[in-house]
């Protein structure tokens, strides 16, 4: 089960747990060299003109450390991803259901960090809760306290997006959110988000007329992802072709998850997920298998060993920025958000992976979202 990307405790936490060596087994593997020590190497601040929507869950994760300390904080894959993206671009919008018990102060904190959250779908049920137990050997386990059925109900389905009878018609922006509070002003997922009519993803969100550049779908319940990915892909139109980025979870991997790969433009699995879905221990071959399904770019996260980027037939190894991790919860999600934002900005997958590694370093520098929040303000 997943909350905020259970990738394993590692120096930068951008992949699966541990340092299980994987033979890349490919002669065309290059090295991109070490990344910058800063999430903003040029010192220019977040880029403007790019809009990313981060779709996923909001959770409350309680970390239990070997010394007995317990630290609880609201986060979730959508929030970690959005905060990671916010360090790279200005306009980051979140679509993740809000539980009935989430304090308004938490939303205010996310908004203060620059996230657009006011139109997030609202549920009458409590927020997803996880207990994350860290062991002395660096491994960890996740306990989904609220259960799988609740996890599914708190995941995003197409019904959480405003519908449009004519996806190519000009968008209008209503003053109030749609039914159920789903995706109104500030959500970034209806008309104003660029995912409304004209973008091909429903009308009436209330976020202006700018088209969304990309949508990052983070791990949610399998049924929600099976419903959502084809829906997002089918509603793209010429001239409104936002990129779809996909990050899955280690639980529930099977044929239905593998089938989703063809609906994304960029696939971002961990090495554990890549092996399971591709049926091979050769990560280079796994990247090629996924690319043959449709994604133009495949990024395989390998924790403290960085990541492999497969783009245009070339496999490049991008090293991690190794630091002593305080808490690796959500680092993989932050990596994915930062990668999507940087890739949308530059079109350079290797450069985007370097930027994302810098953001992952910030994510593990403090408990939960604290490091990312501080950097984003």
From TrEMBL:
Coiled coil: none annotated. The keyword Transferase applies. Keywords: Kinase, Transferase. Residues 178-187 have a biased composition (Gly residues). Pfam families: PfkB. The keyword DNA damage does not apply. InterPro entries: Carboh/pur_kinase_PfkB_CS, PfkB_dom, Ribokinase-like. Residues 156-187 are annotated as: Disordered. Residues 212-370 form the Carbohydrate kinase PfkB domain. PANTHER family: RIBOKINASE, SUGAR KINASE. This is Carbohydrate kinase PfkB domain-containing protein.
